[in-house]
Amino acid sequence: MEAKKYNLEVSNHDFTVKSYWLDQVEDFNQTVDYPIVVICPGGGFTFHSAREEEPVALRFNSFGMHAVVLEYKLIDQETVYPTALQELAKTIDWINKQPASRHIDKKRIILAGFSAGGNLVATYNGIGTDEKLRQKYQIDHLTGEHAGIILGYPAIDLTVKGSFPNDDKVLHEISNDPTFWKAQDLLNKNSKPAFVWQTRTDELVNVINSLTYVEKMTQLGLEAEYHMFGSGIHGLVFGTYVTQKPGKDKYLNAWTSKWIELALNWLQMMKLLG
């Protein structure tokens, strides 16, 4: 496996992606093109959670997938959107233009997002699959498309009271454009299949977020698998010692840790892996 950082640029904004490229397995006696996952970590649009970066990338590597972590735009002097959306589109374009020697199955690009990163992925699953919106937000010139998404405790509807961001100031720092406030409303018949999981007791992002998204996908006849676990805090990642904050047992949750194996099964069922 080769780990490498790249600096990319879109709309006069520089951003970083971290790649985890799989090596070929000599015992196979033939080359294999691997699926690839683009990981968008959470952090409330104020930082990128390292707990949702390399540990997640390496786990997907173990499934036989290349992995890329996108360090998308955060809150600063300019709003997060549409720049973050453009960065994700550029990352997919960059993957699509990788040489054949990288052995990427470019028809099986998966987007995985957690919390705020889940908002980005869920939003892209709508705008990125809508020709008119791609043109409106200036990503229509970028190539490649994703095949499915994985969402972990995603922020979907930014207007839900008592849920992230629960602050009009922060909401407008994320975007002044109401188009970006409700990711569920962006879904369309061309949106890609989704695997979604969250805990019922999530104290930061109300579980109505993921329920609303999956409900809209169901209404549109889109493929979706949803798991609502009965208990657990926000930001569990794996719920194991691998992503546990030192000394904080609340980040351990053996039951919710099963989501990653469920996601593996879903990827295989959707013929996006294996």
UniProtKB/TrEMBL annotation:
GO molecular function terms noted in the UniProt entry: hydrolase activity
Keywords: Hydrolase
Domain BD-FAE-like: 29-216
InterPro entries found in the cross-reference section: AB_hydrolase_fold (IPR029058), BD-FAE-like_dom (IPR049492), GDXG_lipolytic_enzyme (IPR050300)
Name of this chain's protein: Alpha/beta hydrolase
Source organism of this protein record: Companilactobacillus farciminis
